[in-house]
Amino acid sequence: MKNPIAVVTGGAGFIGSLLVDHLIQDDYSVVVVDDFSSGRHENLLEAEKSGGNLFRLEEQDICSLSVTELIAGLKPDVIFHLAAQADVRQSVEDPIFDAEVNILGTLRVLEGARLGGARKVVAAASGGTLYGEPDPSCLPLQESLLPNPLSPYGVSKATMIYYLSIYQYLHGLDCSALALSNVYGPRQDPHGEAGVVAIFADLLLSGEACKIYGTGDQTRDFVFVNDVVDAFLRASKSGGLGLINIGTGIETSVNELYKKMSTITNSSLDPIYEKSRVGELERSSLDPTLAKAKLNWIPNTSLLDGLSSTIGWFEQN
Predict the structure, then answer these.
(1) What is the DSSP letter of 222?
(2) Gap between the Cα atoms of 273 and 314, Å rounded
(3) Which of 22, 112, 118, 263 is most buried when burial is the number of CB atoms within 10 A of its CB?
(4) 153 tagged catalytic
(5) 59-99: per-residue pLDDT in tens?
(6) What is the full DSSP assignment across 145-159?
(7) Half-sphere exposure of 277 (CA within 13 A, CB side)
(8) For residue 52, how far is the Cα from the chain centroid?
């Protein structure tokens, strides 16, 4: 019996590469599609080593017609669509490029899935940018809240969700979108459009002061990458999910985060406070109730354990 085929777009990235490792462990034949604009070859070393004939890398731009042809020819069982232009500030500066990657790229993938008879597509959405800045009384945010994106990036990812829905309606292609809160963990790149945990870990371990923009009282919902990968795997095995939040429902301020991380790294450095950045959300958290009901998923990793694991990885790498 042949191994089922899984395609992972953006598979050389932080979340994607860890997903690839788990798929190989589950005896999937995995094809990674990545143009390495932000993904890293070193993230795939473990997959190359352990996967053998189960692992294949295709260095391609998801906006190209060849990606549709590749996926259609593979006839995959499941597609995990994580490739994206994920920089909010870049989306403001160049909304056309953002739309090309996040909308046209998604359509290329969906067409490949349709033509190849894929059973399932699971795509990564962004919880923070999808819902905008709702009234704090709505926190933690539920999926019933209407999308209200406040950036081109948020608009393009919301559009992606609508396209997933229409492909399910028109073509019977089972599609799900996971709205992710602030994902952190090993392999996250501290440079470029990185999460605050990766940035703080890199600087604290280098003995450099961290910058906090604004008062530091702004909150985020930090969810560990292994828990996120578990959600993707569960979603790939369940039908009729639609949009599901993947977060902890817990708000943690940037000041709290810094305090925990400086304690773990034994740093006595005080952070440098700078002017708040335009468009930054004041508070954010996602309600995981639906994920528990539909996926039997809960975030199993405490923030302290996740931060300790992440910092340990940064120390070794």
Answers:
(1) E
(2) 24
(3) 112
(4) yes
(5) 999 999 999 999 999 999 999 999 999 888 899 999 999 99
(6) SPP---SHHHHHHHH
(7) 9
(8) 26
140 C-beta neighbours (distance < 10 Å), count? 20
Bridge partners (DSSP) of residue 33 are: 9, 58
Which residues share a beta bridge with 222? 182
- Say how many Å lie between the first and final Cα of the chain, rounded: 39
Q: Is the dihedral of CA 84, 85, 88, 92 positive or negative?
A: negative
The single residue of 153, 167, 184, 258 carrying the catalytic annotation is: 153
**pTM beyond 0.90:** yes
- Kind plus residue range of the DSSP H or E element containing 123: strand 120-126
Question: What per-residue string of b and e applies to 190-220 under the rule 16 or more CB within 10 Å gives b?
Answer: beeebbbbbbbbbbbeeeeebebeeebebbb
Contact present, 216 and 252 (Cβ < 8 Å): no
Q: For 247-289, what is each residue's pLDDT tens digit? A: 999 999 999 999 999 999 999 999 999 998 876 788 999 999 9
DSSP characters for 247-284?
A: S-S--EEHHHHHHHHHHHTT--PPPEEEPPPTT--S--
Q: Which tokens in the block code for residue 41?
A: 């070859």
Backbone angles phi, psi at 204, to 5 degrees: -60, -40
Q: At what angle do helices 303-316 and 196-205 cross, to 10 degrees?
A: 50
Strand 219-220 versus strand 252-253 pairing type: antiparallel
- Label residue 87 exposed, middle or buried (CB < 10 Å: 0-12, 13-18, 19+): middle
